[in-house]
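for ur thesis appendix - Casein kinase I. copy paste whatever u need, i formatted it the way the template wanted (i think)
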Amino acid sequence: MELVIGCRYKFGKKIGEGTFGEIFIGTDIHSGEEVAIKVEHATRRNPQLPYEYKIYTLLRGGIGIPNAYFYTQERCYNILVMDLLGPSLEDLFNYCNRRFSLKTVCMLAQEMIKRVEYIHSKNFIHRDIKPDNFVVGLKRNANIVFLLDYGLSKRYCNPVTKAHIPYRENKNLTGTPRYASIANHLGIEQSRRDDLESLGYVFMYFLRGKLPWQGLQAANKREKYTKILQRKMEVSFEYLCKDYPEEFLMYFDYCRALRFDDCPNYAYLYSLFRNVMVRNVRFDWPRFWVENGGRWSVRLDGQHRQARRDGSPFSLPRTRREDPPRLTHRGAAELSPLADCGGRAAVQRGAGVGGEPFFWRVDGSEIEAVRSMGSVDSRRCAPHEHESFEQVTPDDLFTEGADYKSIEPNRGSSIFPSLSGLTLATGRLWM
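the 3d part is after this line
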């Protein structure tokens, strides 16, 4: 028997979970396309999925914005059906031994700035910029970086009057402390400049491998966040960007000079990284392999083999620590060694909250794609500094003029499983 929601979307296996709830792989029975189905308890305090659906609807049509196909509330669950996407930049970062080349960072920076510029053009700020919330697409969208998870997003500008939200202080820290702006730490209302400062920290994280305020020890979260702020204020941008092109320092200087309600010059920021990129030639993973027929060249222990890919995210088992597998893409530079993830580095499928990993298995002279049925192998960082928090209320999320209450779930099937193993509820739509 199969669970179908909305008379269209068939549930598959659970592929991940997050603070909001769980995520399942699904299938559109009309088109045969795979989708992601996110589920949360409707009774939780400040549920996230209704907010996300509203924002995805308002942002619809932008490059790098996932499609939200269906939202409903069934019994005590909120359900959101959206695009199934590929690995996050955090997953790829782990895959590349937790260091990206300069050109890779500049390539990503341009894409990420475009995504942030787009949501700003729609009068929203994201407020939780981090590598986990940027993912790459699958198949025909494999060359696009997507921005996900708008549960903490907020309107900074009234879409009708164009009035900017007022400057306020004594606000709670919102987002992920590791990448939060200093103003956010200090309790100042966030605006566009804060998203951009957070992006800058992500860029340096990719270049340096870690940020100076990672791994700080503290007795509790409050003390941890205080120490992170202190360390951020102690570390100058000059020190943070030392040994890297001056454009990174110019980026931070520009962001820090922005006033609360200033409109950033995104084209200028984009040009900084474009200029750096043309001076460097190395990529860490072949982003455009789909355009070259999806052919990979695999080198293991000096042997050359060919493998065919179908557009799915992938990973390689690490055979021994001192001799990691290396891959090259025809027409592209070689990949960095794998990160050590307990013998394998899972690059996951899913909508930013984990997924169903695919592994390349080396067996004699054969290399085949193996769908792992085991648990998702995700490398999690130190507690607290990597977590997103502070769920917003509808009044905080949507300013005056926004019709939040107009969200009405699409009423499909009244059938929904328990969250443990897709145990079937009673109903009539099972086949």
